[in-house]
Amino acid sequence: MKSATLRAPLRFEGVGLHSGSAATMEVRPAQPGSGIAFITGGVRIPATAEYASESPLATVIGRDGRQLSTIEHILSALTAMGVSDAEIAIDGGEAPILDGSAKIYADALAEGGLAESAAPRAVFAPSEPFELRDGDKAVVVLPSREFRVRFVGDYAPPIGTHYFDGAITPEVYRTQIAGARTFTFLRDVEAMRARGLARGGSLDNALVYDEHGPMQPLQWPNEIVRHKVLDLIGDLTLLGAYPQCEVIAIKSGHALHTRVARELRKRG
Predict the structure, then answer these.
(1) Residue 18: inside a domain, yes or no?
(2) Under a CB-based contact definition with an 8 Å cutoff, are residues 233 and 76 in contact?
(3) The domain containing residue 9 runs over which residues?
(4) What percentage of the chain exceeds 90 in pLDDT?
């Protein structure tokens, strides 16, 4: 597996999901072996678990007093589409949410193309199983010849239980995962806003459920769990290497995923 970066910079503008503020992001080519890193306020923050905090609603990293939030969608697209090295400059404290999915990112990467190098890509390939639990939530990582995700999502009605199982390739990601939108319950929106969250959320960038079901048409019957897979891929980018493994996730979220990446990096 060869390292790869973008052929040319990509620029995205929008609103931050939680801050509600204008958000600008430029994804730039980087040298082979440099990995994925964020730039904000002159501070470089590697996209690895050592710089991440365990946040339940978004992936958050920080360094030297600078913090960036909601970076999981761009990390997901970069990893799944084959990018090993990139610099991501963000103006503001949060990545733009765009349409609530990673489709715009994945399409832009596919259309812009990648530049491969002769250098090998860093790969995380475990030799033994690993498991981390938190109550009824669990993540199991198994040795595998491919990157594969099995995810069980279980939510209160009207969502219920949904399942996804698939090998993660650029084609599978772009057609079956990237378009799945972030989601919430209508009853939770006001509570989140009272805590300073979801101020940029709307029906244009989030899938919202009321007591009867989704308030917008679903793209897949199990769109919710597909978005959880999208998030998981982004969080596994914090390994600092391509995850050549099988991941079984049960009701897990950003906080547990971040803890998994941190523990696995400690093991080397």
Answers:
(1) yes
(2) yes
(3) 2-122
(4) 86
* pLDDT at 119 (0 to 100): 95
- pTM > 0.85: yes or no: yes
CA distances from 3 to 50, 83, 87, 175, 179 (A): 22, 7, 14, 23, 25
The answer to whether residues 152 and 159 touch, using CB atoms and an 8 Å cutoff, is no
Residue 57, pLDDT score: 82
pLDDT at 55: 82
Instruction: Please give the Cα distance from 241 to 133 (Å, whole number).
Output: 23
Residue 50 lies in a domain: yes
- Three-state secondary-structure class, residue 157: coil
Tens digits of residue pLDDT in 88-130: 999 989 999 999 999 999 999 999 999 999 999 999 999 999 9
Catalytic residue from among 73, 162, 254, 257: 254
Domain count, the chain: 1
- For residue 231, give the H/E element and its range: helix 223-236
Packed helices 223-236 and 72-80: angle between N→C axes, nearest 10 degrees:
80
Confidence check: pLDDT of 174 > 80: yes
Mean pLDDT of 246-255: 97
Where is 130: in which H helix or E strand? strand 130-134
104 in any annotated domain: yes
Residue 137 tokens read as: 């939530």
Q: Are 183 and 177 in contact (CB under 8 A)?
A: no
Name which of 55, 92, 54, 72 is nearest 195 in CA terms: 55
Contact yes or no for 57/197 (Cβ under 8 A): yes
The CATH number of residue 57's host domain is 3.30.230.20
Residue 146 lies in a domain: no
- pLDDT value at 189 more than 80: no
For this structure, is 18 an active site residue?
Answer: no
